[in-house]
Amino acid sequence: MPDSTDAVTTPTPRRNPKPKVTTIAGRELKPSTLMMGHGFDPALSEGSLKAPIFLTSTFAFENSAAGKRHFEGITGKRPGGAEGLVYSRFNGPNQEILEDRLAIWDGAEDALSFSSGMTAITVMMLAYCNHGDVIVHSGPLYAATEGFVAKVLSKFGITYIDFAAGATRAELDGVLAKAKEQANAQGGKVAMVYLESPANPTNALVDVQAVRDARDAVLDADGTPIAIDNTFLGPLWSRPLDHGADVVVYSLTKYVGGHSDLVAGSIAGAKRWINPVRALRNTMGGIADPNTAWMLLRSLETVELRMQRAGENAAKVCAFLKDHPKVDGLGYLGFIDDPRQQDIYNRHCSGAGSTFSLFVKGGEAEAFRFLDAMKIAKLAVSLGGTETLASCPAAMTHLSVPDDRKAQLGITPNLVRISIGIEDPDDLIADFDQALAAV
Hints:
Layout: E1 23-24, E2 27-28, H1 31-34, H2 64-75, H3 93-106, E3 110-114, H4 117-128, E4 134-139, H5 143-152, E5 159-164, H6 169-186, E6 190-196, H7 208-218, E7 226-229, E8 247-251, E9 265-269, H8 271-284, H9 290-300, H10 303-321, E10 327-331, H11 339-348, E11 355-360, H12 364-373, E12 378-379, E13 389-391, H13 403-409, E14 415-419, H14 425-437
Parallel strand pairs: 4-5, 4-6, 6-7, 7-8, 12-13
Antiparallel strand pairs: 1-2, 3-9, 8-9, 10-11, 11-14, 13-14
Helix pairs in contact: 3-9, 4-8, 6-7, 10-14, 12-14
């Protein structure tokens, strides 16, 4: 096996296709335009208009000297590094084209694709953290992320401190100062700040700019990256790298994939933060497979259209639900009550998204009656697909979260998470109306 790369310091070599066209006569091309061909050179694929699926485990060298030169570059025995493809655990044409296009949406220097969102998150955290380090994270997080930090990384002497999503600058300064003290006592450092905004499933927003300012004031900005899970709003309605984040994380399963037929994840950011993760991915694997990468390339061509339609639908459905007598409240970014949350939204978001929480009047029994009565919406976990999905996080995705933690985070038994799809909005309203009548 080609294991001569280092899991800590050696990033994966890449192909060198033709120069990328991103402007015309000084005009910067929009992401929706670049999704049709960016990163793909038809001349490398027999003139194929669309990228083929490259189903291969390894790539051939043109001769023995080229093979030796390549590995001399990878191992540092020859300056200048290496270009090209070697082995599909490292990278492949479909994945590289996908990563180039993902980077476009967030204005990132580089991106990496993974076999799932959780693979992206766990490999990233392992790349950044060492024994004795501390992770600071917002709450709530996706339950699997929170569980990995609290239950898995703790086995390796990595601890954490969390803060509420809506924390103020003063509160953030205090949390980071406490984390610094904790790291010093453990002989480590504050390895990273990890955010999820909007939070799953409450839609609570984190002030990324305040987090950046607090990080810069309290910690070493060059040594403590800020990473953020942008799955609920990205890549269309929020660009966290513009607001102070260093790395943006996605479950590509959701809006980017958008058809509930694949599982994948990604990270994007500056090369200095991506390279150590890339190096560890070389060793651990977990890269998106070629077929999934190809499906994501196709999905990226319509992601703007799908997200726009879903967002418009969600606005209409929530307008209907807002004053419904059997609805106790909405966690929808288009109807924010809290002034601080509204301020964060105004600065960080360009749209309210299409995933929200609906609080059914009553408790778990009433929430279940509502869910079981739905005709169009599917009772299923996940979000961001073409179809409308609904679930009860307290009883399903977040069941493993301790009850007191759920109560603290506002994940109540009557909270129903809704992900609106691209169906006819009037049909969806009719479905919600009849389902609420069953409560």
